[in-house]
Prior knowledge:
Strand content: 25-35%
Largest sheet: 5 strands, mixed
Low-confidence stretches: 164-173
Strand order of the largest sheet: 18-17-16-19-20
CATH class of the largest domain: Alpha Beta
Shape: globular
CATH architecture of the largest domain: 3-Layer(aba) Sandwich
Distance between the termini: 61 Å
Amino acid sequence: MTSARSSGPLHGARIMTGTDCSDDSPRDWTDYEGNYVIRGVRPGSVIVTIHLSGYAPELKSVEVQAGETARLDIELNKGAVLEGIVKTESGKPVSGAFVDATRWRGAGTLGLRAVTNDEGKFVFESAPYDTFEVTVTARDVGRVVSMVKADRDEPLSFTVPDAPVGIGSDGRAVLRVGETAPPLSMTTLDSKPLKLSDFKGKTVLLDFQATWCGPCIAELPHLVKVHERFGRRKDFVIITVSLDSDEEALRGFLEKHEMPWYHVFGEAGGAQTAAERFGVNAIPALFIVGPHGKIVASGVRGADIVRKVERVLQDNDPT
């Protein structure tokens, strides 16, 4: 794995096989000499997708013969910075909308995601100079799919319908009260393995947010109050899933604000997978999972968060 500009080796690039982003796909990361080895690849024509921050993603195909080792040398080019805005039909900017770019060249492996800020703006930092599909999904306004190309001077602009919808960023229905919470396997910022199933018998407040999201920050005092009132109980847990892209900024935010509960961040921590499995289409998004693993509340905001948690704990108090 080398840089097309300098011809030097590239360290830390992720090489993934398959036509979709899947945790089960054979993959590897390049070492300091730019080398990688992927084992367990099925024979035949294999799609290989390469990601490295700051560089344009690349997609290649290679023929793999049974019992033999295939070789694929790759050069990466600098990525395009692609900016855009999401608005409603009436011209109102949409904040907290998910902008996903996964499909390109016939595969679902592009793996770009951004979330709009309070002005409805978003940025893809490392986009390919290629045509790819973008899906924009936002709470209570709608969903739109469009083909775009990164070699452009003007920002992208997406207009979503004003009609409300109930679908998540991956097209699935948003999880609703009474449904069983999907399994989650995550890692906290302090490297603690965390599974939702570990908290069977407890009430879990699962909060999806980001430090740059104004409405998320507005909810913070209510989450702090919940922790102050119920955080010492053995039957209650708070997990914040951060959809930030800057770990350093997140850690600085957590140092500034007193939030002494579990925090999950980034792809390695399982944040994006958690958001997809819960059908999160905008933030903030809050779910309360009851002791039996079913969702007992969602979409709770403001002072209602404290009241709802108290009610759920009372309803499930064994005494």
